[in-house]
Amino acid sequence: MTRxxxxxxxxxxxLALRKFLRxxxxxxxxxxxxxxxxxILEKESFALMLCDVRMPGMTGVELADLQQAVDRALxxxxxxxxxxxxxxxxxxxxxxxxxxxxxxxxxxxxxxISIAETLINAMEAKDLYLRGHSQRVAExxxxxxxxxxxEESVCEDLRVAGxxxxxxxxxxxxxxxxxxxxxxxxxxxxxxxHVRIGLDILAPLLHIKQPLKYVEHHHERWDGVGYPLGLxxxxxxxxxxxxxxxxxxxxxxxxRAYREPLAPLAALEHLRVDxxxxxxxxxxxxxxxxxxxxxxSKSGASS
Length: 303
Fold this sequence. Notes:
This protein has helices spanning 11-23, 34-43, 60-125, 133-147, 152-164, 174-177, 185-202, 209-216, 238-252, 264-272, 281-302, and strands at 3-7, 27-31, 48-51. The radius of gyration is 40 Å and the shape is rod-shaped. With 303 residues, it is mainly alpha-helical.
């Protein structure tokens, strides 16, 4: 039923209008002033408002203008609420899509690592002395990064780099990899190519760019006479400096065709003279701390 509000300061007029309109089938409310009408309008809504133009206090014109202002304000509020609802839906959709993209990115990263590790396994399968080397370097590099207080994401990048750092050796001749004596300058130049070969193999794996940067520079030296670019000091990425120390330590403590493995403490002593030359001194300090803690842990477990 259509609802009408009648506003008039004269009681006889408003009662007469109410009676007439009700006889025509309308639902009618009455108010004796503009203020009274506003009180009713705060609680109820009407299809039509009839009001006297001249009334004490608020006139009919003022009341009608105010009602229009109220209607406009309510309309704007409704629009604002709808906009907020849409904004919320958009934010939720963006968050969902972002999470899906991150999940896809992580899946691609893991697939990239899996592909590369397949190559590592193939490479280690043809060289008895390299078996397990990459995994041990990965674990040690991650521990060194933790010892240096680096973020977990950096530690994980170093574990990935450790597993992949020697993949290029799949392109090095076996008789050179397993040569029992010292390498000739020409043979050493051939071995150095494993960095470039590895990067060429891993280049399509765009989701592990940072680990590849560590792989590229893990044969640089603190004193600047390493390869492939001859970087020195802090110009070498920290991850590459860590990988260099982990790689060197595991190489010394592993059996090779040309020598027996060194004990861990003997390997640390052997590397000590190269702190500040081949190695970042702070990384060497971290290496000593990690290896010492390992030995103490083994000693405690066996006692």
